[in-house]
Amino acid sequence: MPAYGNHPFIIQYAMRAIETHSVDVTFFYVPQIVQALRYDALGYVERSIIETAKFSQLFAHQIIWNIKANAYKDEDSQIVRYILVAVKKPC
User: Tens digit of pLDDT for each residue in 5-57?
Assistant: First the structure.
């Protein structure tokens, strides 16, 4: 959260707490994890996603889908909300 100013100890604690749960439990927090990427200046959330995705293809798929689904502010996919990955729209 921006209120904590990307304090490294708080982010490390939060990510360590999430990583102690199984992938099945973490799966329910995919939308919140994707939203946390907005403020991930230190890369802890990104690292956690990559490490978790190595164990679960379903988790990886949901993360990718959620990033693409929330990348735009409007219905026409013209106004970018934030840039996490370079997403190309199919022709």
Answer: 677 888 888 888 888 888 888 888 898 888 888 778 888 888 989 999 998 99
Query: Measured at the alpha carbon of residue 31, what is the angle toward residues 10 and 33, in degrees to the nearest 5?
Result: 25
DSSP string, 22-47: -HHHHGGGHHHHHHHGGG-SSSHHHH
Tell me the HSE value of 85 on the side-chain side, using a 13 A CA sphere: 14
Three-point CA angle 39, 6, 9, nearest 5°: 135
User: What is d(CA 74, CA 84) in angstroms, rounded to the nearest whole number?
Assistant: 17
- Identify residue 11 by its one-letter amino acid code: I
How many C-beta neighbours within 10 Å does residue 72 have? Answer: 16
Tokens standing for residue 25: 């439990």
- Is residue 73 a contact partner of residue 80, using CB atoms and an 8 Å limit? yes
Q: Output the six-digit token pair for 6.
A: 């990307």
